[in-house]
Write a structure and sequence with these properties.
Elements: E1 2-8, E2 16-20, H1 21-27, H2 29-38, H3 45-53, H4 57-68, E3 72-75, E4 85-93, E5 98-100, H5 105-108, E6 116-120, H6 125-131
Parallel strand pairs: 1-5, 2-4
Antiparallel strand pairs: 1-6, 2-5, 3-4, 3-6
Helix pairs in contact: 2-3, 2-4
Length: about 130
C-alpha cells in the first residue's frame, strides 16, 4: 500500500487514476520481478531487483503491462460509506501525487487542497474480480 496527496487529473477517464512511478514500482514490484524473469531479462530475483533499482527502460515496459490487468483501490479516510473506497485502473504519471478526475471526488468527499489518499493493490484473483 501507499499514500500520497491527490491532485487533479482532468485528462483521465472516470475509471482511471494517475499513479506516481515511485509508488507504482513499489506496489507492483513482485509482479515486475516475475515479468523480468519470465521474459528472460533476469535469471533470478536479485538481478531483477537490481534492474528495478537502476530503473532500466524494460522495467517500465513490464510495469505498464502489469498495471493494465490490475486494478488498485483508493481510499480516503475516514471511510464513512461505500464510496469512500473505490477501484481504479492505474496509469503511470510523473511526480509524487496521485491524480484523480475531478468528478470522482464527491464520492470520496475529497478536494485538491492537500487531501491524501491511500492506495492498495488487491492481490488474489478473487479480490481483483471484486474490485472490477
Amino acid at each position: 500500500s501507499g499514500r500520497s496527496v491527490i491532485v487533479v487529473g482532468p485528462l483521465l477517464s472516470l475509471h482511471q487514476c494517475g499513479l506516481p512511478r515511485e509508488i507504482a514500482i513499489e506496489l507492483f514490484q513482485t509482479f515486475v520481478i516475475r515479468g523480468l524473469i519470465r521474459q528472460d531479462v533476469a535469471s533470478n530475483t536479485g538481478i531483477a531487483k537490481s534492474k528495478i533499482r537502476k530503473k532500466e527502460p524494460i522495467v517500465w515496459e513490464i510495469l505498464q503491462e502489469v498495471m493494465q490487468g490490475h486494478p488498485v483501490l483508493l481510499n480516503r479516510a475516514p471511510t464513512l460509506h461505500r464510496l469512500g473506497i473505490q477501484a481504479f485502473q492505474p496509469i503511470l504519471v510523473e511526480g509524487r501525487a496521485i491524480c484523480l478526475h475531478p468528478l470522482v471526488c464527491k464520492g470520496f468527499n475529497a478536494d485538491f487542497d492537500g487531501d491524501q489518499m491511500a492506495v492498495h493493490v488487491p492481490l488474489s484473483l478473487e479480490a481483483q474480480a471484486e474490485a472490477r
